[in-house]
Amino acid sequence: EVQLVESGGGLVQPGGSLRLSCAASGFAFSAYPMNWVRQAPGKGLEWVSYISRSSSNIFYADSVKGRFTISRDNAKDSLYLQMNSLRAEDTAVYYCARDHEGAGVYFDLWGQGTLVTVSS
Amino acid sequence: EIVLTQSPATLSLSPGERVTLSCRASQSISTYLAWYQQKPGQAPRLLIYDASNRATGIPARFSGSGSGTDFTLTISSLEPEDFAVYYCQHRGNWPLTFGGGTEVEIK
User: Fold this and answer.
1) pLDDT tens, B42-88?
2) Which residues of B touch A100 (CB under 8 A)?
3) Does B47 touch chain A (CB under 8 A)?
């Protein structure tokens, strides 16, 4: 089955760190650029970060630049998001999302999401 | 940063009705726009990419149009499963952004 499964969410204090993981299965993970997208409770979608197939190109939203680091391990079919200096406004469901092959940065496959709550 | 403005925020409609959703970009993005559907508790689903191309498995009642700064998602006849929130998203440049969403609710 083609799927993405996120893990690593939870409750963390402001200023703390968390590492999210996304396990891919059922498709050639190394052939696809990947992304993280988040959604604060009751709010809309916000793109967070992009990583190319070989990790040679990486982009971040301004809201997380300098605090979050995206990475991938193609040998393990996994995507990661290291989140440091977390703030209350980072509270959200975090989705990993696959690029739509051959069509640019659109998201054709999503995980179920993992909830990150930043609170004291 | 390109700002995408969706209108209206909410639409109250009945099954069988035709619906037109709007997404306006703050600058030209050619046809680099996608539409997603999201139901409560679920991840978004890609409906349309590059303004007018239906994604795999998307029913023909969904269609997209537009270029430059003005885009439209049309659902020709609303099915019960189409009541959801719809988002547009551009890939014109970095950072990628989404519109604020339009909720299509049952009247």
Assistant:
1) 999 999 999 999 999 999 999 999 999 999 999 999 999 999 999 99
2) 46, 49, 55
3) no
